[in-house]
Amino acid sequence: MKADVSIDCLGLFCPMPIVKTAEKIKEIDAGKVLEVISDDEGIVDDMPNWCKMTGHEFLGVEQNEDEFKAYVKKV
Amino acid sequence: MADKNAVTIIAFSGDLDKLFASFTIATGAAASGMKVSMFFTFWGLKLIQQEGSKPKGLNWMQKMFSWMVKPGTEKRSLSKLNMFGAGPAMLKKLMKKSKVPSLKEMMTAARSMGVKMTACTTSMEVMGITKESLSPEVDNIAGVTSFLAEAKESSMTLFI
């Protein structure tokens, strides 16, 4: 998936990937896609739930071995 | 009407592990756009008391409390397997290794995300903790009514 902005959360554990996502999403424009790279498996469930709570659009998670890439579109 | 988007946390415990739980929920909720308010009471107050603070005018019992339970983010003990401080040292080492943020970092993150921190006045009085000795992160000091008023307006109240 193509993203406009990407943040590296490798090595960080809950709640830091979500905290960093919340910080970054404030900086980008509506309609842009944010990619969150994480090796915390919790992100698979956490990101769609975070989107549900904040109203941003969840686009999906891609897994490559131990690495996860979650995509969020700012609404 | 309760605000579905508000959470109130009573941080009663001064234990490292329980405070981690409190701050994980607080920062996670704040990051999810929720309004978060934390009330520190009893042992939880020791976290938001500045390290090395020696409040004046304490009686011997308050002095004992002050001496037996050290203030600050670095001096917290574990609820289980404390082993005279060996447990927390090992846990901190493990957490650092796996890059889990420290209590201090979580507190700073919570602060920057607008988590409100209130110290309970009654516990402060009992334990001899003065307003001046509280960490700068603390927003205000208040009593049970303030907590109840906020809890009534939130959809989730946790006692940790």
Report on this structure:
The complex is a heterodimer of chains A (75) and B (160). In chain A, strands 1-2-4-3 form a four-stranded mixed beta sheet, covered by helices on one side. Chain A is 32% helix and 33% strand. By secondary structure, chain A is of the alpha+beta class. The mean pLDDT of chain A is 94. Chain B has 160 residues and is of the alpha/beta class. Chain B is 39% helix and 18% strand. In chain B, helix 1 packs parallel to helix 4. Chain B is globular, with a radius of gyration of 16 Å. The two termini of chain B are 25 Å apart. The mean pLDDT of chain B is 87. Chains A and B meet through helix 1 and helix 2 of A and helix 1 of B.
List keywords for this structure.
heterodimer, A: 75 residues, alpha+beta, Translation Initiation Factor IF3, four-stranded mixed beta sheet, globular, B: 160 residues, alpha/beta
Topology:
The complex is a heterodimer of chains A (75) and B (160).
Chain A: E1 5-8, H1 16-27, E2 33-38, H2 43-54, E3 57-64, E4 67-73
Parallel strand pairs in A: 1-2
Antiparallel strand pairs in A: 2-4, 3-4
Chain B: E1 3-11, H1 16-31, E2 35-40, H2 60-68, H3 86-97, H4 103-112, E3 116-120, H5 121-127, E4 140-142, H6 144-152, E5 154-159
Helix pairs in contact in B: 1-4
The total domain count of chain A is 1
What percentage of residues of chain A falls in helices of 4 or more residues? 25-40%
Order of helices and strands of chain B: EHEHHHEHEHE
- Largest beta sheet: strand ordering of chain B: 4-3-2-1-5
- End-to-end Cα distance of chain B, whole Å, is 25 Å
Shape descriptor of chain B: globular
Task: Estimate the strand proportion of chain B.
Answer: 15-25%
What structural class do helix, strand and pairing data of chain A support?
Answer: alpha+beta
What structural class do the secondary elements of chain B suggest?
alpha/beta
Radius of gyration of chain A: 11 Å
Biggest interface, CB < 8 A: A-B, 14 and 14 residues
Number of helices of chain B: 6
Q: CATH superfamily of chain A, please?
A: TusA-like domain
Mean pLDDT of chain A: 94
From the 3D structure, determine the CATH topology of chain A: Translation Initiation Factor IF3
Radius of gyration of chain B: 16 Å
Strand order of the largest sheet of chain A: 1-2-4-3
**Overall tally of domains of chain B:** 1
Biggest beta sheet attributes of chain A: 4 strands, mixed
What top-tier CATH class of chain B fits best?
Alpha Beta
